[in-house]
């Protein structure tokens, strides 16, 4: 019996943020995510942010930080935490 084929994940798709974790799991907690402007680092920062943590994202390129800020601010919900950005030299 053949297994059902999974739909391929496009480069622009993002996993859902609901489901396994409580919306306020990290409320009152702080996190520093280095390399958080792109890729896995951004995904981790995004999840922590949506689960209520105060997140600082550190990256070397200012343009990457600006893009991350725009994306996260657009996704803000009442249960989202705080977000900050640090440019690393």
Taking Cα atoms only, what radius of gyration do you get, to the nearest Å?
15 Å
Sequence of secondary-structure elements: EHEHE
Low-confidence stretches: none
* N→C terminal distance: 55 Å
Could you say which structural class the secondary elements and strand pairing correspond to? Answer: alpha/beta
Major sheet: arrangement of strands: 1-2-3
- Measured as a percent range, the helix fraction is 25-40%
Mean pLDDT: 83
Strand fraction equals: 15-25%
SS field, number of helical segments = 2
Largest sheet: 3 strands, parallel
Task: Describe the overall structure.
The protein has a three-stranded parallel β-sheet, with helices on one face. With 89 residues, the protein is of the alpha/beta class. It has a domain at 30-87. It starts with 29 loop residues before the first strand and ends with a strand. The chain is built from two helices and three strands; from the N terminus they run βαβαβ. The mean pLDDT is 83. It has helices at 39-50, 62-74; strands at residues 30-34, 54-59, 83-87.
Give the SSE layout.
Layout: E1 30-34, H1 39-50, E2 54-59, H2 62-74, E3 83-87
Parallel strand pairs: 1-2, 2-3
Brief summary of the model shown:
By secondary structure, the protein is of the alpha/beta class.
């Amino acid at each position: 019996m053949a297994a059902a084929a999974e739909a391929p994940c496009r480069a622009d798709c993002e996993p859902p943020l609901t489901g396994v974790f409580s919306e306020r799991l990290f409320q009152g907690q702080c996190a520093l995510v280095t390399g958080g402007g792109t890729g896995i680092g951004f995904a981790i920062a995004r999840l922590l942010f949506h689960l209520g943590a105060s997140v600082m994202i550190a990256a070397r390129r200012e343009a990457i930080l600006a893009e991350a800020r725009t994306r996260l601010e657009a996704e803000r919900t009442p249960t989202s935490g705080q977000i900050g950005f640090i440019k690393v030299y």
